[in-house]
Fold:
Amino acid sequence: MVRILVAEQSYLLRKGLIHILRQFPEAGEIEVLGSNLGIEEVLQHFNPDLLIINSNIATSTNEKPLADLIPEDCKVLHIINTVLPPNAPDNQLSIYDSKVNLTEKISLSLKSIDDRQSVDDSEELTPREKLILRHVALGKTNKEIASDLFISAHTVISHRKNITRKLDIKSVSGLTVYAILNGIIKMEDIS
Amino acid sequence: MKMSDVVQFNFEVLVVLQRLQIPFGFKDKSIQTVCDENDMPVEFFLQLVQWFNERENFPQEQLIRGDAEWLIIYLHNTHQYYSHYQIPRIEKEIEYLEKMSGIPDQSVQLMLEFFRGYIREFTEHIEDEENTTFPYILALSDALSGRLSKEKFHTRYKNYSIDKYLDHHSDIEEKVFDLQSILLKHLQPPASSFQFTNLILEINRLGNDLKDHTLLEENVLIPKVRQMERELKEQSLHL
Structure:
């Protein structure tokens, strides 16, 4: 499921976009902002996979530049308030685009994000992920896990993301409960 | 329009009324009359109602333009509702699982420990808001309107700003949804499902409600306070 943040001032455009987005089974949770106010907090907290943002909002002054705030894996589609030239890139949506045009561009983005997410489609944890989970549940940091298992911290983070996606559990204490329930660690191990 | 019609249209509005401490028993009174009787700005009430009726159209800018005091009353009463009613209720329901057959004993104990850990974090989170952040915002509002002298405000809050609050503003719904996933997907369910289903429904309700709460704090309260801080700075420069 793709998490989508729509940042657009116009009520009508927001409604229309959401209407189109809802037609895709890949579209998961959708959050909406009407201005750049609070966008920093929402980006961090909601952590979208796709950001659809009006160029007016993207360029309006915030303390930090928008590019620094967007999560690493988040794809961005820009809403442009003018007509686009015929060779415009696929990540630009014009408010004058036809429904077919918009649907096509949005579909491309959603599918590419969805493909990336479902490389490993099974909900079962792999033995490697179980090993990482065991370390997480024992209270180790990403750095510690990386050095224990001779892998990079980046790999640990990517495993953790997959674990969270498969189990739908984000917090360390939630993951610990899961690990105990499933015999990955014992109650005594953590006390 | 009559207040009772607004409620009939969407019963969720009762929650808004309760959090603004507007008593029920409206008879045929209009929205305006009920708000006036409770010294409530009618716009604020209507913005919240509109949001409850059309979830995807959050009236962010209008709410930011409104009164900080009323927003804080709403948030404060929401805290009360969570900590005195909804959260203890869920805790009791988890305790009740122990009596049910089919769930391994250890699992219930684990859920309880998890949820009690959450309650501790939650309490810390709201105590920080109630004891530090909200009084700061109210003082800021007083300083802007002249009810509190700017010198007094600045001596009291020399080193505080809303960014300090953001530094340790953590996610309060994450663990609630984690618990929901564990109960729904990963736990061996009990033989009888009435209470169990109800528990999951209650947890889901709390999680969604906390999401709304976070939305109000992050997208309205914080930008509003930043605006107020800037205004005060400008006022002080012109003195």
Observations:
- Chain A has two domains: 2-117, 127-190.
- The beta strands of chain A are 2-7, 27-33, 50-54, 75-80, 92-94.
- The mean pLDDT of chain A is 90.
- Residues 146 and 153 of chain A are 5 Å apart (CA to CA).
